[in-house]
Amino acid sequence: MTSKNTARESGQFHLAGTTAVTRLGYGTLQLTGPGGWGYPKDPDKSMRVLRRAVDLGVNLIDTADSYGPEVAENLIREALYPYAENLVIATKAGFTRPGPKRWVPVGLPEYLRQQAEMSLRRLNVDCISLFQLHRVDPRVPLEVQVGTLKELQDEGKIRHIGLSEVDIQQLKRAQRIARIDSVQNLYNLGNRVADPLVDYTERAGIGFIPWHPLATGALAGHDSPLSAMAKKRNVAPSQIALAWLLQRSSTMLPIPGTSSISHLDENVAASEISLTNSELQILNGVRVY
Ligand SMILES: NC(=O)c1ccc[n+]([C@@H]2O[C@H](COP(=O)([O-])OP(=O)(O)OC[C@H]3O[C@@H](n4cnc5c(N)ncnc54)[C@H](OP(=O)(O)O)[C@@H]3O)[C@@H](O)[C@H]2O)c1
Q1: CA of 15 to the centre of ligand 1 (A)
Q2: First and final C-alpha spacing in the chain
Q3: Residue 264 phi, psi (nearest 5)
Q4: Beta strand pairing call for 158-164 and 180-186
Q5: How many CB atoms lie within 10 A of CB 129?
Q6: What is the mean pLDDT of each run of 10 residues along the chain (289 residues)?
Q7: 190 alpha carbon – ligand 1 mean position (Å)
Q8: Residue 187 among the catalytic residues
Q9: Residue 186, beta-bridge partner list
Q10: Could you give the domains of the chain?
Q11: Minimal-distance CA residue to ligand 1 atom 10
């Protein structure tokens, strides 16, 4: 049963050893219109979901300038401003949006800087808690892109720097330019390509934020390959998928996305589940795509 502060049961992680976040966070992509484009049909409902996440103790909210674009950040401000002191809004820049479902990387320094300024304004904050490079633009040297984020950090406009969709070599190159406090890559029980990166970030004390933690729903719901185990435990399949992530690495910070309060409640309640060794062994064999 979810109640106030349930998310705290997932434990805390400190970005750079300083900024505390609940290990179970929330991702805002599902709050926009279809294909990550425009406003949802019912923006009030999206705002209720955001407020509920905070009520449940979630204090890591993942978003991006490109969700909507602008929509997710606007909804966060409208729903949650003035922000609780401990709220960590993690936004991103580095994608342009020519249309629904279309994401084109642009890592030019002027663009990243402009987008940081726009996110500061939209979120109505003086400093962005965690600013993530959404994609490394292959046309711009990685060092230039990370260097721009480092400049923004030195100017006090962003507190922590994160990367998204990088490999270990790229992360190491970035670490020569700036302190990297989080990495956000595709990772879930059914897609473990990033396993070596998960291990690397855990050893380095870097937060690992798995996107598509529920495999966009394939691991949740009745058709999930986790249904049998979930039924035995009288929990939801999504909770098994999230509990597995939380146990996979001490620096794992899942950000399940949902547009539904009941799914949010269900997902946050995964904080309270502890899987046994034999369950973990069974789960290691699951593949969904
Ligand atoms: N860095 C990147 O490149 C990148 C890429 C993609 C996403 N992200 C971030 O990662 C977050 C998570 O990814 P995601 O939202 O795309 O995928 P996800 O969390 O793997 O899955 C979301 C999907 O699962 C459904 N769902 C959620 N909880 C459920 C439950 N308890 N029971 C049944 N269905 C459930 C949602 O539908 P309902 O709305 O109906 O609940 C939605 O369709 C995003 O919100 C975004 O913040 C980052």
Answers
A1: 23
A2: 31
A3: -60, -45
A4: parallel
A5: 21
A6: 82 98 98 98 98 97 98 98 98 98 98 98 98 98 98 98 98 98 97 97 98 96 91 96 98 98 97 95 77
A7: 14
A8: no
A9: 211
A10: 6-283 (3.20.20.100)
A11: 211
